[in-house]
Amino acid sequence: MDSFTIKDLENISGIKAHTIRIWEQRYQFLKPNRTDTNIRFYNNEELKKVLNISLLNKYGLKISHLDKMNDGEIAEKILSLTQLEAQQERIVNELVECMIDVDLERLEAVLEGYIQSKGIERTITKIIFPFMEKVGILWVTNHINPAQEHLVTNIIRQKLIVGIDSVVSEIKVNKSVLLFLPEGEFHELGVLFVNYLLKSKGVSTIYLGANVPLRDVEYLVKLKKPSYIYSHLTSVGKSFNFDKFLLNLTKKFADTPIVLSGLLTNTYEKKIPPQINFKKTLSEVMEFVAHCKEL
Questions:
Q1: I need a labelling partner for 262 at 20 to 30 A (CA). Which of 130, 179, 181, 223 fits?
Q2: Distances from the Cα of 252 to the Cα of 53, 162, 220, 239, angstroms
């Protein structure tokens, strides 16, 4: 899509809307259009520019200096960043740009280059997951065309499956986790990522995939008796009722701890049933995986 609100820019770039407004007032690199009701909106190129400017500013360059640079000079400065975290953020931003432009060849080339250089595990944890977080924001705000979403998802999904298939863990943990996405949830990347993390730490996984009825989950829980049930919620269908989903989980799986992560857990404000544990950040997900390993 080619229309982003100032809140979208804040979520994707990490730069506060207040700061973005100040940039608009003082500098020339951002010139948003406005709706008939005077609400700002930004195009693809402005989103890319905010990502690049915010990255360079984070690593020491002044906005006043960046404002005088052309796109080529900015691109050159980004490539010259030497800090490891800066390089990783640059690659994540590049993937976002590829997705916006539907440049799938470049997107796959960027991923393959990093895999060849750093390996599949580092690519998944340092590049793919941060990229998925940003893409998830775009999915939720409906600023990604379904065609864009499916094309990009398939490429990332392939990389994750390769990573999962190639996992060889010297440690075997006497714990198992059943992973699934409920009916109406088709965004599989997050739960695939958790599947990868668990397997890499020697935890046995039962992977059911996307759009799974709870009756199927119930059958396998009774059959396999997993230590945990796990689901990652990014953007469910309109008919999905989160309260009802939580209630059904607690009724059907009273004896099994349930872990939920994803964007929907960050927006839920009601009391969480004691049997259910929300993991709202990557660090919390990693802590859960480490906990499984230690048990």
A1: 223
A2: 49, 33, 12, 20
